[in-house]
């Protein structure tokens, strides 16, 4: 015969096995996140897309607002990529390179990848993988969530890669140049993204390693003699070659027209034939890459003489006629890579010389040429910006190289814009029993939850202590906390599990969640012992 002995003054909560909850609000949050993410125009590779347009449909960022910034030990000459709320940027520390993965919205570090080589290339993100090339001929594939290496391929031992990969149709396209010009070992490569195996390469002799554009089964880049060339994306065969050199920037493709630049001019080529050419003013050199939006092409120019201000030219992409130009107010040089969002052009003005060199982030109206806003990236250090000003979801991310009078060099990573509002998102993920009532609460949002309180409502049985409880003051963003609540009461379920416990948690930022849990036996301040 079995007996049940009840011992007083020892508290235990005997429950059905702990239940992981999937509340309706939690499910909806996941759906909302998926819908929001798919609707955002991310910036997955160098210059935004495989046509290298540098143009996004994302809201134009307000550069007067800084969202966050970081200092890293390395200098930065690459461009950030932005996908699914994460910014990826490569850095250099002489013979060591890093890729930093950072939360776009709150600036928190997610992971870091290190390679024993320099990284001037910009990462490309596709299908949960990050691809990048190192200076001395390697192409690397990394898991975008963990930063763990998937594969690492050495293309050649005496080539240099400062161009950036383009991912299209399961293939990666990238160009490399000679370590020694007389060797003529420059190549345009096509790799399989699955394992890095070489699908084909085309020997471009001594061409520069200019990032290629890939559109409609064609690859556009620098061919033999640095002539703008078109290659078959499947075979690498040359389809046509222009008589125009492409020596600065990279090609941009719009409606089968290819836009490029030599040292002293900008041009448009279609099927190998030049449609128009815009020569710069005498003494000026092409300094920036090209960017196109709303039927207009923009390019930055500099004059080697420091006393002459740099210019921005806005051209008609159909005719090459100039709409407007703008001269820097401080003898600056526009040698970074400009980008466009909406009717706004973003470009960095490289002002000053020596220890007075400062990068100034500028925003222009693309139709009028008016300067809308401008700010120095860091007015407290010597600095410059060479990479793309990458944008997504109303935010702009850039990397800079900075130094001081003592010769110390470091990198700065900056994010500007209001972007979406940061907010916590509370979810009760688990209620379990034992010798106490244990509640797990997750903040899956991108801001801390403060002033957190919890309310307990119990139906069935006899309970004295229930109501509002003060939980930990703050639940940090993307973290889960455990709350232990001691109750006083008793309840039994015979035909069905009772009592039923309802937990509601809320915070000062108005995020809340409610979850239910039923118990078969609920005893407080007693222990149940089953004996013979």
Structural notes for this entry:
- With 532 residues, this protein is mostly beta strands.
- 3% of the residues lie in helices and 51% in strands.
- β15 (171-178) and β16 (186-192) form a beta hairpin.
- The longest helix is centred in the first third of the chain and has 16 residues, at 24-39.
- The model is unreliable at 1-36, 493-497 and 524-532 (pLDDT under 50).
Search tags:
532 residues; mainly beta; five-stranded mixed β-sheet
Chart the SSEs and their pairings.
Layout: E1 3-8, E2 19-20, H1 24-39, E3 55-56, E4 66-72, E5 81-83, E6 86-92, E7 97-103, E8 109-115, E9 124-126, E10 129-133, E11 138-143, E12 149-154, E13 159-160, E14 166-168, E15 171-178, E16 186-192, E17 198-205, E18 213-215, E19 218-222, E20 227-232, E21 238-245, E22 252-254, E23 257-261, E24 265-270, E25 273-279, E26 285-286, E27 291-293, E28 296-302, E29 311-316, E30 322-327, E31 339-341, E32 344-351, E33 358-365, E34 371-376, E35 382-384, E36 390-392, E37 395-403, E38 409-416, E39 426-432, E40 437-443, E41 449-450, E42 453-459, E43 462-463, E44 467-470, E45 474-475, E46 479-485, E47 489-492, E48 500-506, E49 512-518, E50 521-523, E51 526-531
Parallel strand pairs: 3-31
Antiparallel strand pairs: 1-51, 2-39, 4-38, 5-6, 6-7, 7-8, 9-10, 10-11, 11-12, 13-15, 14-15, 15-16, 16-17, 18-19, 19-20, 20-21, 22-23, 23-24, 24-25, 26-28, 27-28, 28-29, 29-30, 31-32, 32-33, 33-34, 35-37, 36-37, 37-38, 39-40, 40-46, 41-45, 42-44, 42-48, 43-47, 47-50, 48-49
């Amino acid at each position: 015969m079995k007996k049940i002995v009840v011992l007083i003054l020892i508290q235990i909560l005997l429950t059905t096995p702990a239940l992981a909850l999937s509340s309706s609000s939690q499910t909806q949050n996941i759906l909302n996140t998926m819908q929001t993410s798919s609707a955002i125009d991310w910036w997955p590779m160098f210059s935004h897309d495989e046509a290298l347009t540098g143009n996004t449909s994302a809201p134009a960022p307000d550069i007067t607002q800084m969202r966050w910034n970081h200092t890293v030990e390395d200098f930065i000459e690459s461009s950030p990529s932005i996908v699914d709320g994460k910014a990826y940027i490569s850095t250099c520390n002489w013979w060591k390179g890093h890729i930093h993965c950072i939360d776009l919205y709150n600036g928190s570090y997610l992971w870091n990848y290190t390679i024993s080589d320099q990284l001037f290339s910009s990462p490309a993100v596709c299908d949960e993988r990050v691809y990048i090339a190192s200076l001395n001929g390697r192409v690397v594939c990394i898991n975008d969530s963990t930063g763990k290496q998937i594969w690492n391929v050495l293309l050649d031992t005496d080539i240099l890669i400062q161009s950036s990969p383009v991912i299209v149709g399961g293939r990666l396209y990238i160009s490399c140049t000679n370590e020694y010009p007389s060797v003529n070992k420059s190549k345009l490569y096509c790799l399989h993204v699955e394992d890095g195996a070489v699908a084909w390469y085309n020997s471009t002799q001594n061409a520069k390693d200019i990032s290629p554009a890939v559109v409609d089964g064609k690859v556009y880049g620098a061919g033999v003699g640095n002539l703008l060339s078109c290659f078959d994306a499947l075979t690498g065969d040359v389809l046509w070659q222009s008589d125009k050199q492409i020596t600065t920037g990279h090609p941009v493709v719009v409606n089968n027209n290819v836009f490029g630049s030599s040292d002293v001019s900008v041009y448009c080529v279609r099927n190998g034939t030049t449609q128009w050419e815009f020569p710069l003013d005498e003494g000026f050199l092409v300094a920036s890459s090209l960017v196109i939006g709303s039927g207009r092409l923009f390019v930055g120019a500099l004059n080697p003489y420091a006393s002459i201000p740099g210019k921005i030219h806005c051209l008609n992409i159909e005719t090459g006629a100039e709409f407007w130009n703008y001269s820097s107010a401080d003898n600056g040089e526009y040698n970074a890579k400009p980008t466009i969002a909406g009717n706004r052009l973003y470009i960095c003005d490289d002002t000053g010389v020596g220890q007075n060199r400062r990068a100034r982030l500028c925003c222009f109206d693309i139709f009028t040429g008016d300067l809308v806003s401008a700010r120095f990236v860091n007015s407290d250090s010597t600095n410059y910006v060479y990479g793309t000003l990458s944008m997504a979801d109303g935010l702009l991310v850039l990397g800079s190289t900075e130094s001081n009078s003592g010769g110390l060099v470091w990198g700065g990573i900056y994010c500007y814009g209001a972007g979406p509002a940061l907010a916590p998102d509370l979810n009760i993920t688990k209620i379990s029993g034992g010798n106490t009532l244990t509640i797990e609460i997750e903040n899956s949002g991108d801001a801390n939850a403060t002033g957190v309180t919890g309310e307990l409502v119990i139906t069935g049985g006899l309970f004295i202590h229930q109501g509002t409880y003060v939980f930990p003051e703050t639940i940090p963003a993307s973290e889960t906390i455990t709350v232990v609540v001691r109750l006083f009461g008793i309840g039994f379920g015979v035909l069905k599990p009772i009592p039923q416990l309802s937990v509601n948690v809320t915070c000062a930022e108005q995020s809340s969640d409610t979850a239910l849990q039923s118990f078969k036996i609920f005893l407080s301040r007693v222990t149940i012992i089953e004996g013979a």
